[in-house]
Amino acid sequence: MDLCHVPAVREKGWYLALMAPNVKGPNYAWLDPSRLYCHPQGLQDCVADLLQPFQGDPIDMVAGIDAMGFILGAAAAAVLRKGFLAIRKAGHLCVQTLVQPYTDYSGREKMMEVRTDAILPGLRILLVDQWVETGGTMRAAIQLVERLGGVVAGVAAICIEDSEGGRWIREHYKCSHCVPPGLQPRFDRHQ
């Protein structure tokens, strides 16, 4: 798809066609949304679709998850006129942090960290990542926010797969994603 083309009719998720399939093997996500981020209208519509369910909800800050969640999270924070917090892979922050272990989508054990001075008790945080496959990374981010006394105002991702972890997140938190219901089974099966 042309990175300048904008369809005459823009239904929710039209920009999903901009994503490119994985050609590098199983250690990578099955779809790469970086082309979507290059498309000005696609990125704007994606962020608008992610934020639509949270219109009128009290949100104090947006947190993006390392690394591709930084793009959508910062864009969402700008639209909402809120601050942005980076939740990082451990070892990248030079300030005092809180660390949380997790298992990522590929089954690797990792650590996530957040600075301890950014989340005050009761602060309402919208968590944003590009994708929730198994839910391990998002669950670690949720645990970090809650351990610091913050409140998870919601979870937003391009796709929240129908995995055990994805279902747990949907059952416990308000969620938003960009995949139309008719396409969700294809995304769950990585087609």
TrEMBL record:
InterPro entries: Adenine_PRTase, PRTase-like, PRTase_dom. It comes from the Eukaryota. One of its GO terms (biological process) is purine ribonucleoside salvage. It is found in: Cytoplasm. Keywords: Cytoplasm, Glycosyltransferase, Membrane, Purine salvage, Transferase, Transmembrane, Transmembrane helix. Pathway: Purine metabolism; AMP biosynthesis via salvage pathway; AMP from adenine: step 1/1. Residues 57-175 form the Phosphoribosyltransferase domain. The chain crosses the membrane at residues 61-80. Its EC number is 2.4.2.7. One of its GO terms (cellular component) is cytoplasm. GO terms for molecular function: adenine phosphoribosyltransferase activity. It catalyses: AMP + diphosphate = 5-phospho-alpha-D-ribose 1-diphosphate + adenine. Belongs to the purine/pyrimidine phosphoribosyltransferase family. Homodimer. This is adenine phosphoribosyltransferase.
